[in-house]
Design brief:
ATP-binding protein, ATP-binding, seven-stranded antiparallel sheet
């Protein structure tokens, strides 16, 4: 007997990730910040010298993304941690989205998404980078955690860029 694991292919993931509503695509990242108990979230449209849009940057000061959660969430489509709880752990906010696919909405806006996140675990703070390329939505790169000074603010910055210039390696 052979046991097969269903694997989503890039064309299907593109369909799941696509939306013509660009505000809805950006809103997914703002909702994720709120679900991470961020008291503050900022969306910045970064312009180039000619006034064209170079990237979209969403910053929050929430709880960040742990390595364990990054590995689970970025390897799975669906099965969000939000399915098992109704409220955020710190501020008790009602949670938004439970389908585990919002992170892919960047595909409607950019060719590359890079998350830089700082989280607290066992009394220490760590920085982690996660990247997804639009040409390979089924693959993401997650760096090894790097310990940072205890005073470093937790939170996540997501940069949505038109090119692959922000590769993690």
């Amino acid at each position: 007997m052979v046991v097969l694991t269903l694997k989503a292919k890039n064309d299907h993931l593109q369909k799941v990730a696509s939306t013509r509503d660009f505000i809805k695509a950006i809103a997914e990242f703002v909702w994720n910040a709120l679900d991470a108990d961020a008291p503050r979230t900022n969306v910045e449209l970064v312009r180039n010298a000619l006034g064209g849009l170079e990237s979209i940057v969403i910053r929050d000061n929430g709880t960040g993304i742990t390595k364990v959660r990054a590995e689970h969430d970025f390897e799975s489509l669906g099965e969000s941690w939000k399915l098992h709880t109704a409220r955020t752990p710190v501020l008790g906010r009602a949670l938004h989205g439970k389908e585990g696919q919002g992170r892919l909405r960047f595909f409607s806006l950019a060719r590359r998404a890079v998350w830089e996140t700082v989280y607290k675990e066992n009394g220490k703070r760590y920085r982690l980078k996660i990247g997804i390329d639009a040409d390979q939505l089924s693959s993401s790169s997650v760096s090894e955690p790097e310990e940072v000074p205890a005073k470093t603010q937790t939170g996540t910055t997501v940069e949505l860029a038109p090119s692959k210039r922000h590769l993690i390696g």
